[in-house]
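STRUCTURE:
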C-alpha cells in the first residue's frame, strides 16, 4: 500500500457528487421528497406511542425483526422465509449492490432512475447501461429486451422516480421472465400504481421486489424497508449480509402496529390518487407546462424556460418542490409531491397567481 492511500481514497470519494438531498426549508410546505402527509398525524402518534410502551431500549431488539417479518408476511401474503428487512429500502439496495455487483457487473436501468441507486453504482464503480425516456416520458420495453443480453442486473423502479412512469404489468412480467441475471424491481411507490410484481417472486428465482413503509404508510422517518425474494437469497441476506440488528426497537414495534392498521394506509392512497388526478388536470390547463402521467405520489412536469422562476416563486411562498432541470430533451423539469387537499390547493393557487 502507498503511504498516502487513505488520503487518496478519501479524495476519490469527495469527487463523487453523492445523493443530492433537497434543500432544508424550515416551515415550508414540503412537496419535494415524495413523503405522505395525507396519512394523519394521529396515525403516527398512535403508532409511536404504543411502540414506546412496548419497547425497552436498554436491550438489543432480539427476536423483534422476526416478529416484524411475520407481520409483513401477513400483509403481503407471502411466507416469512421469503421476506427480509432493511434500514429503509435504501439500505437493502445498497447491500445488494455492494455484495452482488462490482466493476465487472453491468446494471441495466432507465435514465433517469432513482438517484440514490445511481449514486451507489457510481460509488462502487458499477457500470450502468441506461435506456432514456422518450419525449413523452415513457420507456419502450423493446429497448430493454435488446440490451438485456449485455446486462447482469436489471434494476427498475416501478413506478419510476422521478417520472412516475410504469410499464404495463404484462410487459414487465415478460421482461422479467426473459432476463437471465438478477432482477430488482423497486416498488417504493407500488401502492399508488396499478399492480405489483410481488407474487411473481414465488416462481421467479432471480427476482427481488423491494417495498417500503416510507411512502404509502407515510413513515419515511422510521427508515423501514423490506424485500420479497427466493428463500435462499433471503436467508443469505438476513443471516450474513444484513447487520445483526438493522432496525431500532422503536422502528420494529412501530412497523408492526402500522401494518396492523393498513386500512388507514389504503384510505390515504385512495385520497392521494384522487388528488394526483386533480393536480395533473389543473397543471395541464397551462400552456407553459408539459405535464406527464404518473402512477406514483408525485407529478413531473416540464416548465421549459420558466422552471427556475416557477420554483423560486413557489419557494418565496413557502412551497418547496423539487427542481430537476434537464431530463432528456426537457429543459425545465419540476417534480411536485401530492400532499393533502389543502397543500395541493395552496400549490395550485400559487401557480395560478404566477401564471393565471
Ligand atoms: C424509487 C425509490 N426507491 C427507494 C426509495 C427509498 O425509500 P426508503 O425510504 O425506504 O429508503 C425512494 C425514496 O425516495 C425511491 O424514490
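SEQUENCE:
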Amino acid at each position: 500500500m502507498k503511504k498516502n492511500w487513505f488520503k487518496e481514497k478519501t479524495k476519490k470519494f469527495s469527487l463523487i457528487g453523492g445523493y443530492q438531498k433537497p434543500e432544508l426549508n424550515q416551515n415550508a410546505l414540503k412537496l419535494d421528497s415524495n413523503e405522505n402527509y395525507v396519512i394523519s398525524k394521529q396515525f403516527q402518534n398512535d403508532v409511536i406511542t404504543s411502540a414506546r410502551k412496548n419497547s425497552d431500549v436498554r436491550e438489543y431488539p432480539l427476536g423483534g425483526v422476526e416478529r416484524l417479518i411475520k407481520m409483513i408476511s401477513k400483509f403481503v401474503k407471502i411466507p416469512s422465509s421469503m421476506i427480509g428487512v432493511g434500514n429503509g429500502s435504501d439500505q437493502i439496495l445498497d447491500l445488494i449492490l455492494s455484495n452482488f455487483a462490482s466493476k465487472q457487473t453491468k446494471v441495466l436501468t432507465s435514465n433517469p432512475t432513482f438517484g440514490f441507486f445511481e449514486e451507489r453504482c457510481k460509488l462502487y464503480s458499477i457500470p450502468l447501461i441506461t435506456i432514456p425516456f422518450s419525449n413523452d416520458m415513457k420507456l419502450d420495453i423493446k429497448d430493454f429486451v435488446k440490451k438485456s443480453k449485455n446486462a447482469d442486473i436489471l434494476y427498475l423502479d416501478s413506478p419510476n422516480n422521478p417520472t412516475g412512469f410504469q410499464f404495463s404489468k404484462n410487459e414487465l412480467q415478460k421482461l422479467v421472465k426473459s432476463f437471465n441475471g438478477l432482477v430488482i424491481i423497486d416498488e417504493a411507490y407500488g401502492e399508488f400504481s396499478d399492480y405489483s410484481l410481488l407474487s411473481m417472486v414465488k416462481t421467479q428465482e432471480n427476482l427481488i421486489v423491494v417495498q417500503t413503509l416510507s411512502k404509502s404508510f407515510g413513515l419515511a422517518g422510521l427508515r423501514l424497508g423490506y424485500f420479497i425474494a427466493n428463500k435462499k437469497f433471503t436467508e443469505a441476506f438476513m443471516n450474513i449480509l444484513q447487520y445483526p440488528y438493522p432496525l431500532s426497537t422503536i422502528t420494529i414495534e412501530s412497523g408492526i402496529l402500522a401494518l396492523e392498521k393498513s386500512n388507514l394506509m389504503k384510505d390515504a392512497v385512495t385520497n392521494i390518487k384522487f388528488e394526483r388526478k386533480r393536480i395533473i388536470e389543473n397543471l395541464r390547463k397551462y400552456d407553459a407546462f408539459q405535464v406527464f402521467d404518473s402512477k406514483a405520489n408525485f407529478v413531473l412536469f416540464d416548465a421549459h424556460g420558466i422552471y427556475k422562476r416557477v420554483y423560486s416563486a413557489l419557494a418565496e411562498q413557502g412551497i418547496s418542490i423539487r427542481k430537476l432541470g434537464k431530463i432528456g430533451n426537457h429543459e425545465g423539469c419540476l417534480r411536485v409531491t401530492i400532499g393533502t387537499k389543502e397543500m395541493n390547493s395552496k400549490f395550485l393557487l400559487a401557480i395560478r397567481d404566477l401564471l393565471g
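REMARK: The radius of gyration is 21 Å.
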